[in-house]
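User: Could you go from structure to sequence for me? I need the amino acid at each position, not a summary. Structure tokens:
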């Protein structure tokens, strides 16, 4: 894969998209523009947070995933999923029933990502002694790591250099199977992802050359498959697959799941727009002294992932009840040999900043462009209407300075130029068609938009 080109799990179905601007307005990195009537994603700015998919009324956004039949290429087929997957199911189903359905689907081994989570926390505490930057920022959420890389590059040194939990769990699963006599090339590790960001992280990791995970599965798709196969009652004992699971591990991906382990002066923030506001203050040194930051892109952590089917608050409640039935992490015994072997593989590569939002690499030219943006903003109405195909007036001004837009893209300025006869009506109409597509302005009571958005 070309490392200069970012991989994104999120894609746009241009046949479904009608350019409603919902996605463009909610994107935290202003990565979306409307061109020819459809949403276009800037691959450099996108962090795969999935807010666009969540906001789209036309289901025009989708995620790429591996075909489930790929598991048949391996003798030992491991399904690796976070505990939030179990939290989606109604209380009428036991975890044993869900595990049996996974085996019925074709998997031979089952591992929950959070089983060795305690080792990761120990390793993070070790890292705190190596790194003098404060606060340390968790590398748990790949959307947040990408956000910091491109929008807050000065904070990348604060990110903990430890691999993602699914990679740690994959190493753990492989070591367990090898102890049983399995050959490594016969083992397929398939991660069930709750979001598009983790899918992207498997296909193109930020802090390692490649992920040890074989493939990724859409959690929503797997949930639907399991519901068709789930038995009416447990027929076998699957508790052996959960012998290393702990109370803290089950709650790991929820808000304060990490910070509660780190203790000291720690803070947990969920919801990417909340994270953006906090990082702005952190970058400007407006935050009191903190040792550790747990930042998660989704509201309620992974329980709010875009690929979950259940209500995030119900999922959290179910996980809390489930966690209460399990022992604390300190009471879970694991062979030291396996533990030390996996911990050696925890250290990630250096996370490098990406200056995506820089106007120009030349400082003096960047200052000139910033002044041009301010001059353009004086001319724009400041209504942030989105009629130009950009999320707000500032984004349009930035596009102009970069040569990606014109003053006439602003519908208000264009009307002003029409009145002053600086632009011909035919030219003005073509400008609108370039943004919103042809025939967009023709009368049609069945077209999507306004009251028909749910159709």
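Assistant: Here is the amino acid at each position, in order:
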């Amino acid at each position: 894969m070309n490392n200069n080109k970012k991989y994104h799990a999120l894609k746009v179905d241009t046949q479904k998209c009608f350019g409603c601007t919902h996605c463009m307005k909610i994107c935290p990195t202003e990565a979306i523009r409307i061109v020819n009537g459809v949403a276009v994603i800037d691959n450099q700015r996108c962090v795969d947070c999935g807010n666009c998919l969540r906001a789209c009324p036309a289901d025009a956004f989708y995620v790429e995933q591996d075909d489930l039949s790929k598991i048949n290429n391996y003798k030992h087929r491991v399904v690796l999923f976070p505990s939030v997957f179990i939290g989606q199911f109604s209380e009428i189903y036991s975890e044993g029933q869900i595990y049996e359905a996974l085996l019925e689907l074709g998997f031979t081994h089952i591992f929950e990502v959070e089983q060795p989570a305690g080792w990761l926390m120990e390793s993070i505490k070790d890292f705190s002694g190596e790194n003098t930057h404060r606060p340390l920022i968790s590398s748990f959420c790949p959307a947040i790591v990408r956000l910091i890389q491109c929008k807050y590059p000065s904070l990348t040194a604060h990110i903990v250099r430890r691999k993602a939990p699914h990679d740690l769990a994959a190493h753990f699963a492989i070591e367990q199977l090898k102890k049983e006599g399995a050959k490594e090339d016969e083992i397929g590790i398939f991660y069930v992802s709750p979001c598009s960001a983790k899918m992207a992280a498997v296909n193109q990791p930020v802090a390692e050359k490649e992920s040890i995970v074989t493939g990724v599965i859409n959690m929503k798709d797997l949930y639907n498959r399991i519901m068709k196969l789930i038995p009416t009652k447990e027929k076998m004992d699957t508790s052996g697959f959960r012998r290393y699971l702990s109370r803290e591990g089950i709650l790991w991906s929820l808000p304060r799941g990490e910070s509660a382990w780190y203790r000291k002066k720690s803070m947990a923030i969920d919801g990417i727009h909340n994270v953006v506001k906090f990082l702005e203050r952190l970058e400007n040194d407006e935050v009191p002294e903190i040792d550790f930051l747990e930042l998660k892109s989704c509201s309620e952590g992974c329980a709010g992932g875009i690929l979950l089917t259940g209500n995030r608050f119900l999922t959290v409640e179910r996980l809390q009840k489930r966690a209460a039935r399990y022992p604390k992490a300190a009471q879970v015994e694991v062979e030291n040999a396996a533990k030390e072997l996996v911990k050696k593989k925890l250290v990630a590569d250096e996370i490098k900043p990406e200056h995506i939002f820089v106007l120009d690499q030349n400082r003096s030219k960047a200052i000139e462009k910033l002044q041009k943006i301010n001059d353009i903003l004086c001319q724009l109405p400041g209504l942030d209407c989105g009629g130009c195909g950009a999320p707000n007036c500032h984004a349009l001004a930035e596009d102009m300075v970069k040569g990606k837009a014109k003053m006439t893209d602003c519908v208000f300025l264009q009307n002003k130029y029409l009145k002053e006869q600086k632009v011909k009506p035919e030219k003005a109409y073509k400008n609108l068609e370039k943004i919103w597509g042809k025939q967009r302005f023709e009368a049609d009571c069945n077209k999507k938009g306004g009251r028909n958005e749910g159709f």
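One structural detail worth keeping in mind: The radius of gyration is 24 Å.
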